[in-house]
Every structure is written in structure tokens, then in C-alpha cells.
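Design review, sub-item: ligand-bound model
Attendees: FS, YL, KQ
YL presented the inputs for the adenosine-5'-triphosphate complex:
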Amino acid sequence: MYKLTGVSKRYTRGKETVEALRGIDLVIEDGDQLVIQGPTGGGKSTLLQMIGGLDRPTEGSVQLDGVDLASISEARLTRLRAEKIGIIFQAFNLIPTLTAQENVETALVPLGVKPAERRERAAEALRSVGLGERLSHVPTELSGGQQQRVAIARALVKKPRVLLADEPTGNLDEGTRDDIMALLEGLWREHGLTFVLVTHDSSIARRAPRVATIKAGQLTVTDQDQYVS
Ligand SMILES: Nc1ncnc2c1ncn2[C@@H]1O[C@H](COP(=O)(O)OP(=O)(O)OP(=O)(O)O)[C@@H](O)[C@H]1O
Ligand SMILES: [Mg+2]
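KQ shared the predicted structure:
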């Protein structure tokens, strides 16, 4: 379970200060799906970075199962991220010189998994996203939707508890976008993941059980169950 309390993030550049997050309180139960929406610059990616332990808040705490990501050591945070949190970005962020299989294997290196097992698990993860025939292709030899599937396999190969996605379909055409969303929803259900998804796509938000809207660093949560008649 995530429990965010009074999370604020200020970015300072020279004399200018940006208040990207202003006192956010949020609870996300295990296995829940939360969609985050809001205008550009509202603080969506910043919030996801706090939840993913990629950056620390200026104030407040970000507890995952009672551990405050804001105050543990950098080494512990890196370890916790490698074990528990899978992250997918809009720009895929694959390593261009590595094959699909090698890209997926990179997630297992910090966990000390032996090379033979790494190869096997990466191949399995790629099969599970429908890319079993593309193990030795490098990113330029894959379509956009296929590259995002590699990124999804890389996020999930370590069997994380948490999956975070920042506009994962933002660079894809409509048909591919639907395929990727269906894949992510299926994986969320199948693995019982805690799934936090940033998206501009209102058709996705309409289907989501819970939607958080963030504007000028402030968050409002709508529990959509109560609107189902
Ligand atoms: N590293 C940084 N240094 C300074 N300001 C930053 C930094 N990262 C983000 N910001 C500022 O913080 C605010 C929130 O940015 P954020 O990236 O979280 O927005 P967003 O909701 O994800 O927007 P988008 O929909 O365009 O991705 C913006 O005003 C942005 O300019
Ligand atoms: Mg963003």
C-alpha cells in the first residue's frame, strides 16, 4: 500500500521556484488501478517520480508498505526500485544497441540473476507480450508498438508489485494504443499489480475505477464506483 502525506515538490532554478506539487495526500491500495489526469505542467510526471522513488519530495512522505521512500538511503531506494517497481515511459527508453531480449535482461542485472536465467526469463517476458519472434531484433528493427511491448516486458520481467506508466501510449497511433492498453489492463488483472497510469486519453480514464486529477500541483481523486448506477 502507498500512503503519501503532505507531498510537496519545489524545483529551484536560479531565482525561480516552481511549485510542482503542493501538499498531496493519497492512498493507493495493493492491486488498485489509479489513472492520473490533468493539464500539461500540472505535476503528473513529478508525482509519478515520487511514487516510483525516482526523485524525492521537498516535503512530506511517500510510504510504500510503511517504508518512507523520501528518507531511506540512496542504496536502499535503488534496491527497492529494482525489486518492486516497474516503470514504462512515453518514449520507451530502450537501449538502441541492445536486442529486445538484452533490453529486458537489463532489469534483472541489479538483482544478481545469473546470465542463463536472465536470458530465459527475458524470453518468457517477451513471449508474454507477444514478441516471442523478435528476441534478437534491436529497437530500430521494431515498430513503435513493438518497442513499447519490449519496455513493458522489461518493466514486468522482475515480477514487480507496482507498475507505473507515464503516457505509455502517447507516441502510438490509435489502433496500437488500444492494443497496448488492453495488454496493460490484462497484465494488471493477471498479476494483481498496483498500477498507476498517467494518460491524456479520456476513454481510458472513463473506464478506470479511480481517477486522480492534478492541476497546478494539487490533486483531487474521484472514485468512479460511486457514479455507477
Ligand atoms: N527538473 C525540473 N526542473 C524545474 N522545473 C521542473 C522540472 N521538472 C518539472 N518541472 C516543472 O514542474 C511542473 C510540473 O511538471 P510535470 O512534468 O510534472 O508536468 P506534467 O503534468 O507531467 O505535464 P505533461 O502533461 O506536459 O507531461 C511544470 O511547471 C514543469 O515546468
Ligand atoms: Mg508529464
